[in-house]
Amino acid sequence: MGRIEGGPCFIMQPANTEIAARTQGIIDELKHLEGPLLPILHEIQQEFGHVPQETLPVIAHALNMSRAEVYGVFTFYHDFRRAPAGRHVLKLCQAEACQSMGSEAIAAKVKQALGIGFHETTADGAVTLEPVYCLGLCACSPSAMLDGAVIGRVDDETIDEIVEAVRA
Amino acid sequence: MTITIYIPGDSGALAVGADKVARAVERGLSARNIEAVIVRNGSRGAYFLEPMVEVETMVGRVAYGPVKASDVHSLFDAHFLDGGNHPLALGDPEKIPFIANQTRLTFARCGITDPFSLDDFRKHGGLRGLENAVAIAPAEIVKIVTESGLRGRGGAGFPTGIKWKTVLDTPSDRKYIVCNADEGDSATFADRMIMEGDPFVLIEGMAIAGIATGATKGYVYIRSEYPHAIAAMEKAVAVARKANVLGVNVLGSPNAFDIEIRSGAGAYVCGEETALLNSLEGKRGVVRAKPPLPAIQGLFGKPTVINNVMSLASVPIIMDKGATFYKDFGLGRSRGTIPIQIAGNVKHGGLYEVAFGLTLGEIVDEIGGGTASGRPVRAVQVGGPLGAYFPRALFDTPFDYEAFAAKDGLIGHAGITVFDDSADMLKMARFAMEFCAVESCGKCTPCRIGSTRGVETLDKVAGGIEPEKNLALVTDLCNTMKFGSLCALGGFTPYPVMSAINHFPEDFRPVPVPQAAE
């Protein structure tokens, strides 16, 4: 089940020319792949920091799919963002192995320190906080990922370091 | 002799500071004007000793660990490059009990070789399986894999050889090998370790599968939460192509086989094989009804072998040493070795490859050394989020597919999460239902709606609202989910829930509300 955040109805806008041109470039590069839609969405998110809604009709047209199909795929996967994330993205593992080592208490402390909850971004746009269900670091629990860098055996000291790094 | 220093580049080691250690060692070398090669190897899997630094000396390798960047200065002072004594010295890494007592077949090279050196791979027995495979008929390869008794290591335990035979026997203009590297289960990291630490063994296994079944294209679908594994596999595939291990003439034979790496996008259900195929095709990761089997109509409707990383990575040793060699390990219908991943609240966490048959108690108490917190072990979840919680009373269960099934559990991908006595089993049961609700693909009703109703009903139990009646309802609901769901997500969520209820009933009793004293 795709996670659908609240907010106004998601309306397909006619493509903004600049975004459309960059999107078309990405599509041209990846269209030859078998099943190119996920690689295209990943690349668009890489390019824009999220998947702008204007890109979806461009993809639909290029891949000969309906807009609804493309929208359905986009919303199915947790990774694809409809709005840009903060400058930093902090993911805290909340799966069973990390729970056994106190990941919930860690999350509570981080939330308090940053003043935000999961799936939220600080008002200054510094950091987005997200839960993640397993980073494969289960023998070094509790674990986290900051901007793609892995952190294991997270403790109070690590939390302070992380909070300081994202606040800087 | 050039000095060679090994500092793991495995993400489990990076998570505990291996990069900082590597930089400190580099600085130490240049400050002392010493020439040395630093190899970023995989991890040997003893994560409680990571970052574990090894030095190649005149008397073999000497290990130090767990090393912090701040220890590096004193290591140089203790002449660690000559194997000098130091409080962190571990001696010969092969003699560390956690490592010495294993039977490393699939992980034979992991943590020892340079993951991206094909020469190193060959020197340590790599490519022998593929060389044997290109010299014989496809049906012969399938026969050897079938005789080895290898069963799908992803969790279902389906015989690998039979799957391959179906694909071999299904005529088609195009066939695929798909490697399921969507290792989403908590407590599992074997796939990640092999992809980061010995990626060529997976490439070799996939090439053998391709030659055995007539498939020319392979995909590795890796979860996006594993960026290091994705990067490692891409790098290794490029090296393998250059050396003609992949390409139009695999090892100079007339067989063509190539591999492409694909990234998942954060959907747990895509670890289910048919959902994974849909995702690869660029669709929503929704589960397909079976039949048709993927072996007959899989990726893009073509015959497809879809195997877990561990299954494919176990094939090269079978093709190298023969079916009998592999089959001689294990017990009953569980043949060969299994990489057990010991995780969570445990003193000696890590990967432990061993023949099937150890008891759960031996794994948790003896190998794992009990809890990290020092408190008593209360529960052990075996097989990831969809596996059952086992109490100490069942610690005599041998690690074997059938033995676990007989105790209403499963070994799944062989991950074990240890919990101490602070674990609240009602909360864990609720978490299992909640996880299922969030990750359900939505195709079948028992999973999509049952999981949400499960959360609500367990909340009522927790709130003391008609607990007996509501527990009966949860039991009935679990029965519906188990037998009515399309795939293992809805079908296996009842395992953690029911095992928590059955083995830890005290956590599901209403807490008596104290009468207010006037």
UniProtKB/TrEMBL annotation, chain B:
<dbReference type="GO" id="GO:0010181">
    <property type="term" value="F:FMN binding"/>
</dbReference>
<keyword id="KW-0411">Iron-sulfur</keyword>
<dbReference type="InterPro" id="IPR037207">
    <property type="entry name" value="Nuop51_4Fe4S-bd_sf"/>
</dbReference>
<comment type="function">
    <text>NDH-1 shuttles electrons from NADH, via FMN and iron-sulfur (Fe-S) centers, to quinones in the respiratory chain. The immediate electron acceptor for the enzyme in this species is believed to be ubiquinone. Couples the redox reaction to proton translocation (for every two electrons transferred, four hydrogen ions are translocated across the cytoplasmic membrane), and thus conserves the redox energy in a proton gradient.</text>
</comment>
<dbReference type="InterPro" id="IPR001949">
    <property type="entry name" value="NADH-UbQ_OxRdtase_51kDa_CS"/>
</dbReference>
<keyword id="KW-0479">Metal-binding</keyword>
<dbReference type="Pfam" id="PF10589">
    <property type="entry name" value="NADH_4Fe-4S"/>
</dbReference>
<feature type="domain" description="NADH-ubiquinone oxidoreductase 51kDa subunit iron-sulphur binding">
    <location>
        <begin position="426"/>
        <end position="471"/>
    </location>
</feature>
<dbReference type="InterPro" id="IPR037225">
    <property type="entry name" value="Nuo51_FMN-bd_sf"/>
</dbReference>
<dbReference type="InterPro" id="IPR019575">
    <property type="entry name" value="Nuop51_4Fe4S-bd"/>
</dbReference>
<protein>
    <submittedName>
        <fullName>NADH-quinone oxidoreductase subunit NuoF</fullName>
    </submittedName>
</protein>
<dbReference type="InterPro" id="IPR011538">
    <property type="entry name" value="Nuo51_FMN-bd"/>
</dbReference>
<keyword id="KW-0004">4Fe-4S</keyword>
<dbReference type="GO" id="GO:0008137">
    <property type="term" value="F:NADH dehydrogenase (ubiquinone) activity"/>
</dbReference>
<dbReference type="Pfam" id="PF01512">
    <property type="entry name" value="Complex1_51K"/>
</dbReference>
<dbReference type="GO" id="GO:0046872">
    <property type="term" value="F:metal ion binding"/>
</dbReference>
<dbReference type="InterPro" id="IPR036249">
    <property type="entry name" value="Thioredoxin-like_sf"/>
</dbReference>
<comment type="similarity">
    <text>Belongs to the complex I 51 kDa subunit family.</text>
</comment>
<keyword id="KW-0408">Iron</keyword>
<dbReference type="GO" id="GO:0051539">
    <property type="term" value="F:4 iron, 4 sulfur cluster binding"/>
</dbReference>
